[in-house]
Amino acid sequence: xxxxxxxxxxxxxxxxxxxxxxxxxxxxxxxxxxxxxxxxxxxxxxxxxxxxxxxxxxxxxxxxxxxxxxxxxxxxxxxxxxxxxxxxxxxxxxxxxxxxxxxxxxxxxxxxxxxxxxxxxxxxxxxxxxxxxxxxxxxxxxxxxxxxxxxxxxxxxxxxxxxxxxxxxxxxxxxxxxxxxxxxxxxxxxxxxxxxxxxxxxxxxxxxxxxxxxxxxxxxxxxxxxxxxxxxxxxxxxxxxxxxxxxxxxxxxxxxxxxxxxxxxxxxxx
Length: 270
Fold this sequence. Notes:
Elements: E1 3-8, H1 20-26, H2 34-43, E2 46-52, H3 56-67, E3 72-76, H4 92-98, E4 105-114, H5 122-139, E5 143-148, H6 151-159, E6 166-168, H7 175-183, E7 187-190, H8 193-196, H9 200-208, E8 214-216, H10 238-249, H11 253-268
Parallel strand pairs: 1-2, 2-3, 3-4, 4-5, 5-6, 6-7, 7-8
Helix pairs in contact: 5-6
């Protein structure tokens, strides 16, 4: 079974650098290295992984990690939580933009708006989102969007540009916003949340994502799917998401795997 994990953060596993919350979670399983995670993933049929950056250092790690692992690619991003540290410009912005020219980079993100935590002001989040959209368009790259309780502001920003391609990562929102995303040509990323949510409306959204727009992801080390709750998430657990969705949607597991892999290859060129 050939699966693609379109969103993971394995580049900082076993390291003391990278985005803080992610590396602190990896530190709870210090025996795991990036190589171990890839080996286990491939053995489980997860043959391609997109390593997603959340700030400048984390994005650099993702690029270098991808450069040294033939079945990994990088996405460079400034997470909305980090926007406050980049909005004033300085050297960080051109250094980040320069990463977009690396051959290992296949997307920009994760970027977007997060009004649930609002670690950065809304205005700062919007400015850094706009910067990354412009960078992606200039580089001809798709985007990985993180949007949480912020679609009312996200859609006007998105609609201010033409030709933006990408995926709404870890989608948990409404049928209305699913329809708006599909109307704009976006893909929908689904991860372990689908396996443990108790919200019937969310489950109905997962049923109604068209197969040709569906992407699978783990968000490792976060959002471990059932039946592995309580453990650090890994790309090898992507199969649990595929199994759950196939049963939920009444689809053949092989068909779902083939379709989501084809979607990932088309969007990201991997």
